[in-house]
Amino acid sequence: MRSTGYSNLSTEEILLPVRPLYVALTLLAALLLNLMPLTGWVLVLRPDFVALALLYWGIHQPRKVGFLPAWLLGLAVDVAEGSLFGQHALAYSVMMFSAIALHRRVAMFGVRHQMLHVLAILLLTQVIVLAVRAASGDEYPGWWYFVSSVIGALLWPVARFLFTIPLRARRDPDEV
Amino acid sequence: MEYTPPPFFKRGPSLLARLSFYALLSLVLLYADARFHYMEGLRKAIGVVLYPLQRIVEVPGEMISGIGGFFVNQSFLQRENERLARQNLLNAGLLQIQQEVISENSHLRRLLDMKERAVPTSIAAEILYFGRDPFSRKIIIDKGSSHKVEEGSAVVDDTGLIGQVNRAFPWTAEIALITDREQLVPVEVVRNGLRAAVYGTGYDGALDLRFMPVNADIENGDVLVTSGIDGVYPVGLPVAVVSNIERNAAYPFARITCTPAAGVNRHRQVLVLSRLAPLPEYPPAQQKKSKPRKSRRDG
Q: Is the dihedral of CA A11, A16, A17, A23 positive or negative?
């Protein structure tokens, strides 16, 4: 049996360097997923893919992905959703801040504990949107509003797996 | 000599400084949008950039429905065709009667020297997707300002009023449903012509008829249609049916809940009605009140 304390560090793969084009492509894919035409309860369950992708890059590449992409994508999400202009920009900026501030800490944990961090950050993002809407006179939509954060946190391992597929080093055929 | 770190460790402004910059920028945008609606131009520009992405995302759904349509059996189509033909015949009959009524109405109005009612033209559109903002009730349709969809026009389906065009982008338009919390529709009761206003509740399938006195003549099942006195909605579009009335003498107003006549959850096709001719201007305010203010400004 492996010792639990260092298992995460020892199993961390060595990945290829991330190219900016790859980051841009993943963010575009996340935006496309956010734009999917959905109705009813699927819409309630739908996680914020853009937030999840930004969070991944904020935690893993804090030097490459900063506030500007988060802010611009926030504006795009605001236009697509027809919500107040700037509410997601603000929420994603704060999310990016917490991701970059916590990135060393989060990397020390295993997947399950990382999910808890992600859940907290996603909930914070939604609370900011809620606060902005409350300030402009809207009502609390209901507890189901926060379900999408929980789904987003549950998708964290999947996101981690998908994001690293193109970054894994090709297995050297000469290696035994 | 002051100590500076070697350029090797330079990271630009601190994290907190960057956060404050972007947060402040967002707050300025929020304030300008919520209070003054300054951001419509920028919003439209971003909407144009997003449009191709929205169309790309539509493709898988369209493909699936296309494949589904391929396997529809003939008997189903035949049945539907028969039903539609029957309905068409029925509608044609009603339309003939209506033509006569319209001509008679315009004749009578001319006799009485009243303004003629404008007949709105309509633009057929399809629902692209439902708004994802959980705080409001909105839909996005596939016709925009390039198809002459104007902001403020009424949107209907085959059974009644759905909502109003909120924002017109070049190729899409955002429609605020009548169930949206900020929507208000002036209506009248068909049975007795009583005028009232219907407010959205923020929930699907429920509207509020507010500020009606406890003894107002309203019954369950009353049909509400647009009254047209606002100059926005054409006259006589079905809006809702009264579904529940609570009369409590402790409150000045009755609690009246209605069910919307139209539902966006059934069909994808909607009609955008063109805006009516603007109403005549309000009569000017009395001259006496404005005089002292004028003199103060002059002096």
A: negative
